[in-house]
What does this fold into?
Amino acid sequence: MPTTKQQVAAALASLEDMSTQHDLDNLPRFGITAPKAFGVSVANIRKLAKSLGRDHDLAAALWETGWYEARMLASFVDDPALVTPSQMDRWCRDFDNWGICDTLCFHLFDRTPHAWAKVEKWSGARAEFVKRAAFALLASLALHDKKAPDQPFLASLALIQQAADDDRNFVKKGVNWALRSVGRRNPTLRAASIELSQRLVESPEPAARWVGRDALKELTRPAKASGLV
It folds into this structure.
């Protein structure tokens, strides 16, 4: 049985073998800044993750390498049941681009029992990608947690309203994503999200107006076209 250190070395070697200049060039093209990157497509990262299976210790070791693709791989390899609140905070502080932020929230953090607490905690953060993580995580919960009641999502609209005037690009887009995702869950949440969007449109803050206008475009489309049935 290979050690964790050996598994990490093998994973990094596999990532390097799968790397292409095209995929490396795509990172800045998509607004992703990664100091250490091989250039590997997400499809190939997921393929490698499938061959590795769930392994919490391996995920932690992959994260510590600092490689962009290794950290992406960690999001698919880690076991949500073993992820701790302190780990989430540590990894979130390491977020330096929207790709790693959104992937961790969408494929790992939203499956942990700590997700809702982190939405509230991170929503008030100053760091750009920590704050974005709050709303990327909220959007992910809205999309994936089919059994959750309406109440936590209704309560989350206050967090969206508070953050909507943040004009940093990756924050306002995360806030907008969360608002649209909450509104797409069902008619009750759609009505509440439309009401908030309309209030944001009247805001004196340009960022809030943009968040509200963009959300309204989707949430006021006919139900079939917007996926609200």
